[in-house]
């Protein structure tokens, strides 16, 4: 499943195309994806101007003229493709390749803005993604968004806040960080990478990062910094290839070449001075990669 940096990169790739554009038409080529499309979906979006593109956790939020918001999730295999006369591009770099097979093109947005017309195509072979409509005033209380935790992209996530969030939690640190009610948008890849950078074991109890009275510790401050850094590095790596969306080639992955532990089972630890080997364990049904020698 695409993680927060990939979704943010997609947002940045779509922004120059969609923000400020008027939706001339919407081709809805099936009745449902993961969920049924909203009643009258095409007609409710047609004619609206896309006023802004936001992201909350792993959700794309397309704000439409008049106050409606289109909530989009890419699921396991979803992607957007920008099409002009010069061909199609897929904004975003993913660890696993995105499909360009037109038989999986389920939604086509026909857009008009200064400079011409463009098509934005949603492709999803496994159909685990979805598109829902709500109103901007209802967004904070929407069932998908209301319970989400702090975003890991700003200074709000510091050692003190992380300590408060983890205090008293007896679950493993990695599982707790992947709880979207704690930190929104963190997924398997970047939790593994952040824990490696912080030198913390994914098996460690989450509560050990807070003092008994809930105050921050050196570990909580260190981890908060590595979470923000690894997310920022991944977004920057993706964004650097998408300064001009026309040149986004949809190539496989951009940050994967910088992975320190993820998907590197049996390889030497990359931390300077460490002679350990990357191991893989299964936590909550997901593969966890870490170095037992330097992550404690």
Summarize the structure in short.
The chain has 296 residues and is α+β, with helices and mostly antiparallel strands. It contains six helices and eleven strands.
Q: How many discrete structural domains?
A: 2
- Any idea of the CATH topology of the largest domain? N-terminal domain of MutM-like DNA repair proteins
CATH architecture of the largest domain: Alpha-Beta Barrel
Helical/strand content category: alpha+beta
Shape: elongated
Strands across the major sheet, in which order? 1-7-8-5-6
How far the N terminus sits from the C terminus, by CA atoms, comes to 28 Å
Mean pLDDT: 89
How many distinct helices?
A: 6
CATH C-level category of the largest domain: Alpha Beta
Q: What would you report as the Rg, rounded to the nearest angstrom?
A: 20 Å
Helical coverage, percent range: 10-25%
CATH homologous superfamily of the largest domain - what is it?
Answer: MutM-like, N-terminal
Walk me through this protein's architecture:
This protein is of the alpha+beta class and about 300 residues long. The chain has two domains: about 5-140, MutM-like, N-terminal (N-terminal domain of MutM-like DNA repair proteins, Alpha-Beta Barrel); about 160-290, Helicase, Ruva Protein, domain 3, CATH 1.10.8.50. The protein is about 20% helix and about 25% strand. The strands form three sheets. Strands 1-7-8-5-6 form a five-stranded antiparallel sheet. Strands 2-3-4-9 form a four-stranded antiparallel sheet, covered by helices on one side. It has a two-stranded antiparallel ribbon with strand order 10-11. A hairpin with a 2-residue loop joins strand 2 (about 50-55) and strand 3. Helix 3 crosses helix 6. The protein starts with a helix and ends in a 6-residue tail after the last strand.
């Amino acid at each position: 499943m695409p993680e927060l940096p990939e979704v943010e990169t997609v947002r940045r790739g779509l922004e120059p195309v969609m923000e400020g554009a008027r939706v001339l038409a919407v081709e809805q080529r099936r009745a449902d994806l993961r969920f049924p499309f909203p009643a009258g979906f095409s007609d409710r979006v047609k004619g609206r101007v896309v006023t802004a593109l936001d992201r909350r956790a792993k959700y794309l939020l397309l704000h439409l003229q008049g106050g409606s918001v289109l909530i989009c999730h890419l699921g396991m295999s979803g992607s957007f493709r920008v099409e002009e006369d010069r061909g199609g591009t897929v904004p975003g770099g993913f660890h696993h390749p995105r499909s360009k097979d037109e038989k999986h093109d389920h939604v086509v947005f026909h857009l008009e803005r200064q400079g011409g017309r463009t098509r934005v195509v949603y492709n999803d072979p496994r159909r685990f993604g979805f598109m829902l409509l709500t109103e901007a005033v209802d967004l904070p209380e929407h069932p998908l968004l209301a319970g989400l935790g702090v975003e890991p992209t700003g200074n709000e996530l510091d050692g003190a806040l992380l300590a408060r969030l983890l205090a008293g939690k007896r679950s493993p640190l990695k599982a707790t960080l992947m709880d979207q009610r704690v930190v929104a948008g963190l997924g398997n890849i970047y939790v593994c990478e952040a824990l490696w950078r912080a030198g913390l074991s994914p098996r460690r109890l989450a509560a050990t990062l807070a003092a008994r009275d809930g105050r921050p510790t050196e570990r909580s401050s260190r981890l908060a910094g590595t979470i923000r850094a690894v997310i920022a590095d991944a977004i920057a790596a993706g964004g650097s290839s998408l300064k001009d969306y026309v040149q986004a080639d949809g190539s496989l992955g951009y940050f994967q070449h910088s992975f320190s532990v993820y998907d590197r089972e049996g390889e030497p630890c990359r931390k300077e001075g460490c002679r350990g080997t990357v191991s893989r364990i299964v936590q909550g049904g997901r593969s966890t990669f870490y170095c037992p020698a330097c992550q404690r």
